[in-house]
Amino acid sequence: MANVKPRVKVPKSADAGEIITIKTLISHPMESGQRKDKEGNLIPRQIINRFSCEFNGTPVFACDIEPAVSSNPYFEFKARVPESGEFKFIWVDDDGSVYEETKKIEVK
Amino acid sequence: MELNRRQIMALGVGSAAFATTMSLSLPALAANDAQALINAFTGGAEAGEGALSLDAPEIAENGNTVPIEVTVDSPMTDDDYVEAVLIVANGNPNASVATFHFTPMSGEALASTRIRLAKTQDVIAVARMSNGTFAIDRKTVKVTIGGCGG
User: Fold this and answer.
1) A5, B66, B86, B89: which sits with the fewest CB atoms below 10 Å from its CB?
2) Which DSSP letter does residue A45 get?
């Protein structure tokens, strides 16, 4: 799908073992499957149905998403940073598309 | 079967009365399968109150984007952490909203997002801990403009 742009906010550095806040936003219409077009036909559902975050390959946080999540789904959550490494963020669309974003973090 | 006018009138009044009771009792009962989802999530186990806190606005002007936040009191260590938090809304066309999955790597069991609410209703959060216990919290959110694109 066009115009899907993930945005993620992760601090650049942290102390070892520190718990940081991560904010993510992805632009997506999240068509709920409840709305009707001008002719009264249902617009088919198309949403992001799964979001997950991992750190150096270990799962940190995930969310199963239903149509009741707003358009441009936003998630804020916490993560423990044991060492320097890379956060990977994955969004899965109903149409099978996968959007990914990575952010590096350094332990001081 | 032949019905005379009197019988038809009686039928009409009866069904109107029935319809009224139905519409009155519906909001009290869950309008959708919210309770069934919670039961499936907990497996019928009793969910305690206190450990989980669900934060949602009392009044949401726009049901299209209602900010919610869940926090669970948990040490989030390898032996004692929050596995998942189920969010349901009992007045939406579909009760399920989202399920958060946490790990010990989360550090804190806190998550926030924005959800759609079709009308004034209860939002309910249920947490499943790694030790098999459950916690529940609910908030009533008044919605001024519904969020399902009527």
Assistant:
1) A5
2) P
